[in-house]
Amino acid sequence: EKLTISKPSNAYDFGQIINVVNANKDKVACADLLTITDPKKLPMLLSNKLEGEIFLIFIQSLEYYVLGKDPGLVYQHLFYLSKAERFKVVLALLSKNEKEQVHQLFDLLSENQNHQYSLEDLENLKKVYEL
């Protein structure tokens, strides 16, 4: 049964949706959520709730369901995700395999590069993700 995702109006709503998405490992619903969420609001919406599992479902959803439609949006989400409160902690706790997934997303972004970001922007962001 498909989750219906509505635009979260605040960090609490966003957190509730993320919990359901994560519990169901629903990457399509996560992609829907990320597609309707303004990337600039991501750090505020995540507040201090960013965790490894959530980070990974974001990465996977962006790769499988958003990248093909809108590489620029994926770049924006990765950029603002790196501004979230617990980003550095989550990054430090990723396994080698999980880091590979992030690396793969960056590789695909450079292949699908569009006018919304330059390869230089992408390289700079990669450094933030310490890849």
UniProtKB/TrEMBL annotation:
It is found in: Cytoplasm. Transmembrane segments: none annotated. The keyword Disulfide bond does not apply. One of its GO terms (cellular component) is cytosol. Residues 7-99 form the RNA-polymerase II-associated protein 3-like C-terminal domain. Keywords: Cytoplasm, Repeat, TPR repeat. InterPro entries: CiliaryAsmbly_MitoImport, RPAP3-like_C. The keyword Cytoplasm applies. This is SPAG1 protein. It comes from Chauna torquata (Southern screamer).
